[in-house]
C-alpha cells in the first residue's frame, strides 16, 4: 500500500491521555449531573460454597451508619432466570433458596458513602444449612448432590446431547503402531483486568441511563431491558474508558443488571464499584478443563488418530464458559495437523466455584494446549525431535479453504512457514546442542526448549458489524463503531482506516463507541473480532462516504460526476485536470448542513471466520535442585493477516505472551476443600510481572485472508494461545532426560521438583 | 478492601508516640511506612481502633557508625538502608537484603523498624538482622531497653514489644569483612520468600537465619555449630531445618520447604565461603 498510512507504526492517539491525566472510568464520573446524590451499592456475598439459605437477617445492618436500604431477592420479588445454555438451570440474580459458590451475591446494601457499605454488609447475618461442596469436576460428575436439582445431574452441557458424535474409545487406535495417552489439567485462571467491575445507574425522565465497564454496551443494554421488562429505547448504556476485560466483561453480571432496578426502588442514582477481593471471586474465571487425550500413529511419526475428552468446569452457572468446549475447543482440536481421524467429546460440569466465562482465547488455548502436549508425548515416545514430528503432520501450505477431518474449514494457512521462521530465529539447532551440553555436564540449570504451532478461529460470528463516518462542517470526521475498545487501540486504528480512505488527517478524526444512543447496534469487542469486522465496517463506510461525497462535489462543482476525482493527498474533490478549483470535506459537509449532513453508515458482513496461526519457541532454565523455572527466551511468529499498525500488533502479542506464560508458570485459581477461595488477592494469585519475563522476540508474517477487504485476521488472543503450550513444553523438555513426561500447569517450583523426584 | 473505621493521631517524637500509645493501649497501633499494616487493615485482618502515625518523626531516620556496630533509626526507609555507603561497607548483607524487600515503591515507603516490629517470619529483614546478631533498642514509658534479635520474635506476627513500647533503633554488628550469602526463593520478584536464607561466615564464626521456615524467623544454630566443628558446607546445610517448624501454605508444603532450606543454606554458605 504505497503512500498509505496503513502498515505503519503509528503511535497510539489514546496514550497521551492514559499516560498523563489517566482514563475516565465508571468510578471517576464525579461530575456527571445525573449521578449527583448517588447512593453506593455494596453486595453481600455468600461466604460458603454450597448451602441452603435458612434466613437472611438485615435488621442490625439497617441500623448501621449511612444505610439507606437493603434488598434481598425476596424484597425485590426476583424470579428465577434460566441459564442461557441450559434452561433447566435457574437462579435468581440475588441468591435465594441456596448459594452455589463463595462470592455469589445475596443482598444489596445501599449507603450514603462507599466506605459505609462494607461495614453494613458485614452485619447482614445469613444462616446456612450446609450441603456437600463440589469443587472438583470429576467429583461433581459422580456426586449425588446436585448443584441444580432441576437439571438432574451436575453435567450441565454435553456435546453428545446436542448431536455431536461420541468418542469410540480405544477401538479408534486399533491400527496404530504407537499410542500414547495423557491426562492434562488446563487450570482455572482469573482474568484480572486492572479496572475491576463498576457501574452507575440513574433514571432520567423515565429512561434508565447506565454507565458500565463493559466490552459490549449494546448486549448489556438488551440484557438490562429484559431484566427490567422495559421497552426498546428505554435504556441507554454508556461505556466510559474500560481498563481491560479479557472476555470477562462481555456479558452483564447480576450486579450490573440489578442496578437500574435498585435506583428506581430507592429513587436515587446508584453507583457500584467492586473491590479487588470481590472481583477475584465474582468476576468470571477462565479455562478450567481436564483433558483426556489419546494420540496414535506410525513409528515414522505420522499421527493417524486423535481423541479428546474435555471435562469443562462450568463453575456455578451455565455461562458462555460452559459451551466453549463444544463450540471452540472441539472444532479446533486437531489444530495445525492433518490427522485423518479425530474424535472429541466435551462434558461441562457445574461446580461450587465462580462461574466460568470467556477468557482470552476462550476454548482455543485449551484445544491447542491439548494437541501440542499430545504431539510432544507422541514425539517423545518415538524418540524423535518434536519439531520434526510436527513437520511430518502439519497441513501443507494452503491458500484455498482447507477442511479438517472434524469438519472445520480454515481460510488460509502456512503453518510450516511459521514453524520454519521460529526455528531459524531461535537458532533451534544450536539450542539443542546447548541443551545436550548441559545434560552431559550434569548442570543443575537444565535448558528446556518448547515448541507450539497453532491455528485459532476468530470472528466466527457473521451477523455483521456497524460502522459510520460523519463529516462535520469544520472538516473533522467522527467515526462511530459497534466495537468497544478496552485497551486495544481502536481510536488509532480506526482513525488510520478512515484517514486512509478520506485523506483526513489523523488528528482531525474522533472515534465514538459504547454509547447505545450514538451507536445503537454493535457486536462489541471480543474474540479478536474488532479489526476484521469493526475495522472493515469503518473501511467500508469510509469508502462509501468518498463515493457519496463525490456526487455532492460534482453538484457543487457543476460538473459531471464521472469527471470528478478525489485527491487523497489534499483531501479534496476536483474536476480531473483542474485541481485549483476543489471542494474540501468541510465544503461538502457545510453544503449539506441543512440536509442531514454528510454521513455514511455501513454494515459489514464478512465471508466467514478467519484463522490466525503461528508458531512459538520458548526457552527456559529449570533449576533441578529447587524446581524453579526461569523463562529466558520467547520467540513468536503470529500471522494475523494484513497488519494495519505493527505497533498495536506487537502490543497485543507481547501482552498475549505474558498472559499465556503466566498460565504456564504462575497463575491458578485455587480453593480449599471447603470451597473457600485461597487466591483472591494479588499477593496470593500470582499475576505475572515484567520481572518474570524476558524481552520477547517477535517475527512478523502476513498471510492475508480473503474473508474481508482488509485481509486482516484477529491478533488479540494469538499470543496467549501460542505461548502457553510452548512455555509448558519447555519446562518438561528440560527434564525429559530425567524421565519426566508431563507436568501440569502452572509449573510451580514444588510441582516441578516433585516431578523430578518421582521420575528419579 | 476498605479498612474498618479507626482514629488517627500523629506523633512528632518518640516520647509523644509512647505517651499516646499509653493512653490507647491495646487498641492502638503504630503506623510507620504502612506497607505491612495497611494491607492487613484493608483485608480486615487487623482492625486497630487508633493509628498513631510515627512516620514523620524525623529524628528516628538515620544511619550512624556506633563503633562496633551500625545504628539504624527505626524509621529509616528500606531504600536508604539499601543505598547507604556505610551499610554497604560495614554490613553489606543487610544492604543487600533490604534491596529484596517488596518492590521499589515498597522500599521507598517501608521502614526497617516497621518491618521488624511487624515480626513477620516471611519478611526478609527479621531473619537477616537475626543472622547478624543485631540488638534492638526499645523505648517505653520507663525508658530504654536493649533486646537481642534472638529474644525479640515470639510467634506469628508477635514480638516481645509491650503494647506501650516502640522499637527505635537497630544496632547491627559490623561484619568486619566476613563473607555472606543471601538467597530469596520466591515465585515473583515482589513476593515474600517461600524460603529465604541470610548467612555470613568468618574464620571462626557464622550466622545463618531462615525466612518463612516457621512462625518466627529461625536461627539455624545447628548449621553454625556444625561449621564450627569442622563440617563441610554441604554437610552443615543438611541441618538447615533442625530449628525450623515450616508450615504448609499456598506456595509450598512443609516437606518442600525443608528441602529448599537445605539447598538454599548450602548455596548461601558457598557464597559466604568463596
Question: How would you characterize the overall build of this protein?
Answer:
The complex is a heterodimer of chains A (760) and B (274). With 760 residues, chain A is an alpha+beta fold. Chain A folds into three domains: 17-131 and 194-244 and 249-282, Aldehyde oxidase/xanthine dehydrogenase, a/b hammerhead (Aldehyde Oxidoreductase, domain 3, Alpha-Beta Complex); 286-458 and 609-759, Aldehyde oxidase/xanthine dehydrogenase, molybdopterin binding domain (Aldehyde Oxidoreductase, domain 4), CATH 3.30.365; 460-604, 2-Layer Sandwich (Aldehyde Oxidoreductase, domain 4), CATH 3.30.365. Chain A has 19 helices and 30 strands. In chain A, the strands form eight sheets. A seven-stranded mixed beta sheet of chain A has the order 3-7-1-14-11-12-13, sandwiched between helices. Chain A has a five-stranded mixed beta sheet with strand order 9-17-16-15-10. Chain A has a four-stranded mixed beta sheet with strand order 20-28-29-30, with helices on both faces. In chain A, 56% of the residues are buried. In chain B, α5 packs antiparallel against α8 (124-131). In chain B, the strands form four sheets. Chain B has a five-stranded antiparallel beta sheet. In chain B, strands 11-12-13-14 form a four-stranded antiparallel beta sheet, with helices on both faces. A three-stranded parallel beta sheet of chain B has the order 1-3-2, with helices on one face. The radius of gyration of chain B is 18 Å and the shape is globular. With 274 residues, chain B is an alpha+beta fold. Chain B has twelve helices and 14 strands. In chain B, a hairpin with a 2-residue loop joins β8 and β9. Classes of the chains: A alpha+beta (760), B alpha+beta (274). The A-B interface holds A 114-115, 117-119, 275-278, 625-626, 628, 666, 670, 678-679, 681, 683-684, 686, 688-689, 691-692, 748-750, 753-754 and B 1-2, 4-5, 39, 43, 185, 187-192, 194, 250-253, 256, 259-260, 263-264.
